[in-house]
Amino acid sequence: MNQVAAVLAPPVQTASAGPWPLLVATYNIHSAIGTDGRFAPERIARVLLDIGADVIALQEVPLGGSNSPDVLKVLQEATGFHAVEGPTEDVPQRRYGNAVLSRYPVLATRAIDLSFGSREARGALDADLDCHGQPLRVVATHLGLRPAERRDQIRRLLQAFDTDRMPVILMGDVNEWFVWGRPLRWLVSHFEAAPAPRTFPARWPLFSLDRIWISPRRRLRRVHVHASPLARIASDHLPLVAHIDA
């Protein structure tokens, strides 16, 4: 066990007849480099434990490689959760991208390629969870920086959804600066509107870049930002948290 895992005891899991109520979160961890410029995955781990979410979507996660640390492994050991990765960069020297941490077992995963032209590779990690016998689909994503790129990515992402088979949660950093831009309007049309507190930049949030949507919408009860003093320095984004019930 590494030093971080030794300091942070995994949360106690209790038996339940079902997953509801469910706490989910999305967090762009900025490669575990804080607003002070320091690489400190143990701070990200502490923020996650403070939140206490059951399912967490992560973006900008170093996943290992000959020249890169495996931050997901540190976070998995600290939380005691199941972990699945969705690399958007996968070469021997560096693996990097999206990830999901889950209190519940992961039944299946799929990769959705959202790359656009010569822009930085993007994607979504699509995972089916078994929440005490009840299926839940979680999609963790990180969209591009240009409007045309995001429009193309949202079109492809929405084509992959089958919202009738099980509840679906879409979480991630959508990088959408324009409140009335077409990507957000398409997502609202598909999932219905959801609260969008400001999450970026962490020290003084001005933009709602990180979002959580769920279908069916009636399950979404409350959305808030985890703005603890530690969260304000652990990454350049603040975590976004949603309370979901049956």
Brief rundown of the structure:
The protein has helices at residues 3-7, 41-51, 71-79, 147-159, 182-191, 231-234, and strands spanning 22-28, 55-64, 82-91, 94-102, 106-113, 123-131, 134-142, 168-173, 210-215, 220-225, 240-244. The chain is an alpha+beta fold and 246 residues long. A hairpin with a 2-residue loop joins strand 3 (82-91) and strand 4 (94-102).
Notes on the structure:
There is one protein chain. The model is unreliable at 1-16 (pLDDT under 50). With 246 residues, the chain is an alpha+beta fold. It contains six helices and eleven strands. The chain has one domain: Deoxyribonuclease I, Chain A. The N and C termini lie far apart (37 Å). The longest helix is centred in the middle third of the chain and has 13 residues, at 147-159. The strands form two sheets. A six-stranded mixed beta sheet has the order 3-4-2-1-11-10. A five-stranded mixed beta sheet has the order 5-6-7-8-9, with no helix packed on it.
- Determine the structural class based on helices, strands and strand pairing: alpha+beta
Distance between the termini: 37 Å
Kindly give the count of domains.
1
Which residues form runs of ≥5 with pLDDT under 50?
1-16
Organism: Herbaspirillum hiltneri N3
Pfam family, one: Exo_endo_phos
GO molecular function: endonuclease activity
Keywords: Endonuclease, Hydrolase, Nuclease
